[in-house]
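In the lab's daily routine, each protein ends up as an entry in a very long ledger. A line of letters takes care of the sequence, but it says nothing directly about the fold. The fold becomes a row of whole numbers, each drawn from a learned catalogue of backbone shapes. The protein below has been through that process, and both of its lines are reproduced in full:
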Amino acid sequence: AAAALLVAVAVERIDESLPPGEAHPGPWLKRQHFYAAVHEIGHFLVGEAIFTGLEASVAQMRALMDEARGS
């Protein structure tokens, strides 16, 4: 829940920081949202790896991603 809140705040800030005069903001916003998600995933993996090891951390992230997709 805390991670989802942090991502929501980051996305809100990204939306507010749209470059002035951007003619087509859609692609720019999609890229920024993607970068925010990758950043959060990286922090999760490194943080968990400190306690469980990198292999277990990656396996846990993969399981969470599969669960979210309904796979």
